Records
---
Amino acid sequence: MEKQILRPHAEMAYAHELKALTKIDNRDCPPGWKLSPWAVVTYLMGGTLPNGTEIEPKYFGQRRLMEIAVATLATDRALLLVGIPGTAKTWVSEHLSAAISGNSTLMVQGSAGMSEDALRYSWNYARLLSEGPSEKAIVASPIMYAMQHGQIARVEELTRIPSDVQDSLITILSEKILPVPEMNTEVQAKQGFNVIATANDRDKGVNELSSALRRRFNTVVMPLPATLEEEVKIVRNRVEKMGKHVRMSKGNSALEEVNRLVTIFRELRSGQTEDGMVTLKMPSSTLSTAEAISVINAGQSLALHFGDGQIKAIDLAASITGAVVKDPIQDRTIWEEYLESVVRHRKDWDDLYRACKEFLG
């Protein structure tokens, strides 16, 4: 029996939506684009098409932010999505690439040990030794391939890349060329080429962008959800999409646990309770929306395989503690104080208080 793909690319998972948008899209498309800017934003934000097709929202937030991002890509400026971990930067970049180029796979994952080859090109050394420098001996990076075919390239975690390697993007972004000095030639970008990069300034190991490189990008700051209700909606939507094989609990129990979890994360992130009455110490962890999704997924799995299928406080205690307590000394103290000063005194939160205290020991 053929196994299903665990996580299909955006252009595969939402092929029916992209096809429906293509059929009704009669607006001007920038050169090399599959859809018009209006259709790309509609794909991201969701809506109902004239033919009745429902477009599922991919991004829950300000429509204007997505319009700015798409308008940037319609020019010769690259796009930089900045925000703390878990603000949907990677999710948005993938769907932008899928809608614009029909291909979201041209991605470079930034890391501390990356060399310039990952951003430019490398060599097939067997061919290089036998034939010398030639087009057939070049192994194109995702960015080089995107330039050759007029598509969107993605650079994830740009600030994780060493600064001297980051700057190899400057010529690509400003001149739209990639020099190949070994062959005394260059690759010129075709229409439709652009770069979407993501970056955050909260993780350890962050490398600041040079002013020369930052000037080559238009920056869009990706905010955390503005309200509790909005964040709860995002968490439930993503859990249902990511965890179909886990089966989201039905009824009010799942919604109640998501509400409590998101409330905890928002309060510890902001340093005060939702009503503003109690000031709290803030842990070193980011407690992002993405981490809330992971906690709920883990709790759902525990409830399904080792419980009665209904997610309860005991199913979340370990994952919540793991998300909050990154520093075993400082964060543990902050978490214990929050449990005693806030969770313990909330109506109907006794089960969560006991479960978390029991896990801490």
---
Amino acid sequence: MTNVLRQRAEHQFQEELAALAAQDSRLKPPQWKLSPQAVITYLLGGKLDNGVEISAKYIGNRRLMEIAVATLATDRSLLLLGVPGTAKSWVSEHLAAAISGDSSLLIQGTAGTSEESLRYGWNYALLLAKGPSLDALVPSPMLNAMKDGKIARVEELTRIPADVQDTLITMLSEKTLPVPELGTDFQAIKGFNVIATANNRDKGVNELSSALKRRFNTVILPVPNTLNEEISIVQSRVASLGKVLELPDSPPALEQIRRVVTIFRELRTGMTEDRKAQLKVPSGTLSTAEAISVMSNGWALASHFGDGLLTADDIAAGVLGAVLKDPVQDRIPWQEYVETVMKERDGWKDLYRACRELD
């Protein structure tokens, strides 16, 4: 698995999961690999009695993670809601890895997602040769999760057409998937549950029906509360990505991360960190995930086209690309920020010059 570009969480952190399981003596819900308390330790990090250090996968409110894990220990499904870049997919994957040991049972929601993606399909060669049969049935990740007692993941639930979304209602309420063609049904075994993610910032969002909403317990993942919290998240994720991508061993300096995160927070909130000036807000989300992307791209630029030391020139292009999602609408707030905030800030002259040259 070492040559895989992006390892699944259960493979990337298998040593941590094994260490947690080895000393986890608490009560586990049916089919769970770890107890709820151990799942929280896996998510938030900590040091075990045997000295093993568990890295933090989520930096934020502990109570939110406890609510999410407790929900999955009941018969209610979990909906992780938030603006883009608030680690919904990341948390979803790690929850599935810690609970089921398998985060691969994934359905990616798009405008083209069909009922077959949520229920089952057919091998048409076998269907024509033998007619409807279990051999001809092609199970979806949802059906496999029901049969194996695992966690199924549905990404971007609100991008799925509304009539297809409602296919989930029977599965979530009755824990059953009827197969009328065979005159039978599949009943979920203990351990089955669903984690869905959704945000309301994308175009093409389909509102969830009230019947479907009732089947979920909703946990809203907020943007990081403080500047230092967001810096810690970006620093951790960039270091992790650097190892996966095998970038040279010269990670971005903390000061450059602080600059990017500060820019994104100020433009996102429409106010400088010191609360002394109001700013126009661009159309993009400027999320933590985008800050991670900017820093990773800057690290690659510095490593392959520079001397390995991350400079303002390496991050300027990424910042510009993240802010100017709409080249016309976003140019005014960006130029205003550059001239009124960046230009006047102590120690930012190099970044100001780099942004002016690109713009």
---
Amino acid sequence: MRSSIKRKFTEMANKEKKNDVLRLPSELLYGNEIDALKIEDEKEKKPAGWQLSPKAVLKFIVGGKTTGLNITPKYIGHNRLVEIAIATLLTDRSLLLIGEPGTAKSWLSENLTAAICGDSAKVIQGTAGTGEEHIRYSWNYAMLLANGPSDEALIKSPIYRAMETGSVARFEEISRCASEVQDALISIMSEKTIAIPELNKEIPAKRGFSIIATANTRDRGVNDMSSALKRRFNIIVLPPPADLATEVSIVSKRVAEISANYKLKAALPSAESVEKIVTIFRELRRGATLDDKQKLKSPSGVISTAEAISLITNSMALAASFGNGSISDEDLAAGLQGAVVKDEEKDKIVWKEYLENVMKKRGAAWRGLYNTCSEINTI
């Protein structure tokens, strides 16, 4: 009796703790789905270091049904690409996800890792300031100076910890790192060890170790990956959503999830509002109207699916805080101005031409949004 009461209080405390966190990792956000898949998957043979079989990982990512629970799709796109990604992680090859900003590279990477090993937190965020020590290891310098090199003074990188435990490490925006930092991965991926000469030892990778890296095609000119490093990855290019309906579905789903997590006190956007935003983004992104009857200039910034999700989520926040709780044309227009006009001199002209030559001619359904956008663009 006491143990059941204690367990109940522990569950309540954990739930309350989760509610205080701004953003939950996928293994906690979708923990009930992973648990349901574990039960269904109990008799299936699993690769070393994996908590689910490859088929269960696929179901977690693309969605499906399990006993008493619907598995929500985490990635809406080509299922074959997800199958190839999972198959890659079954081998000694690492995985590189490439695509334009907003093609769900990081989201797919996180959810794959959550499903495979239940820990998506072993992550390196690539930046211009990322050094080789972020990939291998560093030292607690106070302990190093006091006692010299020791296991206690060693600070393990996420990749080091993944090798130790036989799990998956994530490397976000790898092309933003300097070339020499990127190439520190070559020996790790080839030899599957990390050498620590200060301690005269090597750390071998346990079975199940792998790396999922992501890179934006827009960042290709920042620090292009060497051929030697590319050869050690299986590369999958994630395309933008294939059509308007698919992108609308993605945006609607993610907006609903994010607004629930942020507890925004506003109604979810109408299908018409989402379709308008996605239509604008798709047309500006491709440099032509959806019917291909009119060529358009594209703005200098990124007009991605992720930007559309962010815009609508922010519009919900505006409607909840300063409106009547329903997204208005004014709320959407405020977000559109910031999303499209990144370069004040060039993008403002591009946006004005789109308003006058495309949106204005779309009739009464677009009239309110056109008027508000035009008013803001003249400020």
